[in-house]
């Protein structure tokens, strides 16, 4: 019976450690994703500022 209790304790400890590792990894992935998204938004903001808005007139016209 003691061996069964020990096995339960070890199994529970392994489960807790695995769950904690998964949670930590998920937090790191989320932080990394937010940083990537922010960088992409900043890049697009820089690119979009090069183009005139609908309210601005532009002397350059493209034709096909």
Q: What letter string, H or E per element, gives the SSE order?
A: H
β-strand number: 0
**What level of helicity do the residues show?**
over 70%
Radius of gyration: 27 Å
Average residue pLDDT: 82
Assembly context of the chains: single chain
Explain how this protein is built.
By secondary structure, the chain is mainly α. Helix content is 73%, strand content 0%. It is built from one helix and no strands. The chain has one helix at residues 2-48. The longest helix has 47 residues, at 2-48.
What topology emerges from the helices and strands here?
Elements: H1 2-48
Keywords:
0% strand, single chain, 64 residues, 1 helix, mainly alpha
What would a concise description of this structure say?
With 64 residues, the chain is mainly alpha-helical.
């Amino acid at each position: 019976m003691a061996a069964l209790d020990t096995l339960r304790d070890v199994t529970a400890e392994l489960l807790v450690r695995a769950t904690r590792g998964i949670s930590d990894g998920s937090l790191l992935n989320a932080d990394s994703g937010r940083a990537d998204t922010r960088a992409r938004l900043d890049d697009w903001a820089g690119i979009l500022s090069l183009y005139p808005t609908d309210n601005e007139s532009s002397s350059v016209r493209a034709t096909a």
